[in-house]
Amino acid sequence: AQTVTQSQPEMSVQEAETVTLSCTYDTSENNYYLFWYKQPPSRQMILVIRQEAYKQQNATENRFSVNFQKAAKSFSLKISDSQLGDTAMYFCAFMKFKGGSEKLVFGKGMKLTVNP
Amino acid sequence: GAGVSQSPSNKVTEKGKDVELRCDPISGHTALYWYRQSLGQGLEFLIYFQGNSAPDKSGLPSDRFSAERTGGSVSTLTIQRTQQEDSAVYLCASSPAVNTEAFFGQGTRLTVV
Fold this sequence. Notes:
A: mainly beta, B: 0% helix
């Protein structure tokens, strides 16, 4: 079974600074997807960024980028120029892919607070 | 609708009662997921539907929990004889067959008193 580990339960950062959220996973699969989801106090889960395991290039999405280390099974999220609206729970998630989508497995999440 | 819709948004029920939680996925999405999120915790997988395949029920915590998906669209999660430990936010998500991104509803907050 796949597992996703987020070892930092909570972090805080000053507005405009850069912060990195860590995530490791365990799988014997070769084809899979990795995701970072954000859950603000409104409770709505929002996809931040995704990475296909077969791609060597790290995914980027505006201020959000990942450092995907497949051999180390590590998938960290970097948030640049942090904004107050980035305050939320962040969840790392894994999905194996075998000819069609499979279930998402989530880590326990990390609470990020951006301070003014 | 444009997104995943869940109802009710909040539900308070007495211990021992049955409850039904509803999820309307995005039209055309073949995959549907139910997750449970206890206060301050991560997302606990409950059940997964994919097209006409048999659902993956491996996350259901007890036989008091069941879920149906009618016509490949709307899904209902039923909790029988509710217990206080069932109190949580129940999240539903759907995704299309090809693109793997899952889109979430806003959840149903269930409180068992």
